[in-house]
Amino acid sequence: MKPVVLVTGFEPFGGQDRNPSGNIAELLDTQCIEGRTIVGQVLPVEFERSHRRLSHLVRKLAPELVICLGVAGNRLVISLERVAVNLDDARIVDNAGKQPTDQPIGETRTGGVLVDLARESDGAGFSGARSRSRTLDVGGDLCV
Q1: Which one, of 123, 138, 44, 125, lies nearest residue 87 by Cα?
Q2: Positive or negative torsion for Cα 43, 7, 20, 122
Q3: pLDDT (average), residues 136-144
Q4: Exposed / middle / buried, residue 141 (Cβ in 10 Å: 0-12, 13-18, 19+)
Q5: Cα–Cα distance between 108 and 90 in angstroms, integer?
Q6: What are the domain boundaries of the chain?
Q7: CATH superfamily, domain at 4-135
Q8: Per-residue pLDDT tens digits for 31-52
Q9: Predicted TM-score (pTM) above 0.85
Q10: C-alpha atoms less than 13 angstroms from C-alpha of 124 in its C-beta half-sphere
Q11: In 6-142, which ranges are continuous DSSP H helix?
């Protein structure tokens, strides 16, 4: 069996008709890239459901790599997150009408996790991207 790479995006939110992160996940689903099967999944834009869904997918698929995509409305480049902040702290409500503030994610209660891909490769895997940058973190909005 080929190694699995899980790529997630999100459904539309905030009155938008589409979400490019979800579109990308759907387009990549079932592709085989460099001997790896891509499983693309669209997550709900609901804090509780998205956390449960991602956890379920990771347990079920045991992926070699997990790539979670999101959208930053005003950002014009692909940004690689350097620290995954373990905190739900929403600026706007999710699709279920919830807006958690300063809530730790999961049971670990750690402040954050260093992201090896961004730190070590500095985006080398994105060599075809016209523009890319590194960002410290993406904040506490719906990021799983």
Answers
A1: 138
A2: positive
A3: 52
A4: middle
A5: 20
A6: 4-135
A7: Peptidase C15, pyroglutamyl peptidase I-like (3.40.630.20)
A8: 999 999 999 999 999 988 998 9
A9: no
A10: 5
A11: 20-28, 47-61, 116-121
